[in-house]
Amino acid sequence: MVTKRHFGVTRNGEDVYAYTIENDQGIAVTLLDYGATLQSVVLPHKGERIDIALGYDTVEEYEQNDGYVGASIGRFAGRIPDSVLRIGTDAFPVTANEGKNQLHGGLVGFDKRVWDATVGDDTVTFSIVSPDGEEGFPGECRCFAIYTLSDDALSIEYTGASDRVTAWNPTNHAYWNLNGHDAGDTRKHRLLIPADRYVPVGPDAIPTNGETDVAGTRFDFRTVREIGDVYDHSFVLSGDTLRLFGTIGIGMEIGTDCKAVQFYNAKYLSERPGKGGAVYRPFGAVCLETEGRQAMPNQPIAEENVLTPQRVLSERTTRYQFLYKEN
Questions:
Q1: What are the structural domain ranges in the chain?
Q2: How many CB atoms lie within 10 A of CB 125?
Q3: Rounded to an integer, what distance in angstroms lies between the CA atom of residue 269 and that of residue 190?
Q4: CATH top-level class for 2-323?
Q5: Which residue of 131, 167, 236, 266 sits 20 to 30 Å from the alpha carbon of 185, by its own alpha carbon?
Q6: pLDDT by residue (tens digit) across 225-261?
Q7: Positions marked catalytic
């Protein structure tokens, strides 16, 4: 069942609506058409209802705060070095919004757009049209974000179609805290990432030396272990299922057909008010942004991130299965 309510108005006068999908198991997922954003995920647990996704109570907070909390990201998740998009032998200057680089689609990415919404029994489909040249990207691109809630899982599928060769690398930027969105530090969460390689980066978070073996490094999450340290790195997936566990008995299996995941444990999330009077602080969440491989300096983007008029991409599906004990 899906219900709809008015959530607020943007600074440009656009109405924003919240859509809540609920199932018979007591799971409730709330989505916003602003940014095709995941605003909350409420689970029943030991007689309580626990919201495990960080978010805000007002449109103004989504507009004012950095961090892309819960938003759909596009056209290109991650950083484009020197704000030069390279597709094959062609180079396109794109808008810089993080120093000399572009981050998460530019100044007005998908996260800052109000999307159209279509409602089904257990599904909300958001759509936008990104015009040719928006933030420097070539081609008109029609984009869809499809959220579906089943008995014990939430799936997010991104699909794109373009009239020109362009870049297409969307993701969802959910901030997860499996002890509750207001529970604080997540460094004792336990994580498995099935990745043999990761991407080292410099102080500006731009890749420095291609992909590197995780063996013998703190980046080896091929068996479940505590997070502990600071991470904001891309991992090249060698398997299709990640696992994340909190410390109160809630966990997730994250199945994806994406080639990579950006693992960020919110080191740079500045202290700020969150939903329901919560205060969010650094390390208060885990982001696992399933996406294509990262853009490398002076190299063409990976083939999985290239969209052509002959190629409609829907291989951006991630399924979050909720677990209620650590197993």
A1: 2-323
A2: 18
A3: 20
A4: mainly beta
A5: 236
A6: 999 999 999 999 999 999 999 999 999 999 999 999 9
A7: 173, 289
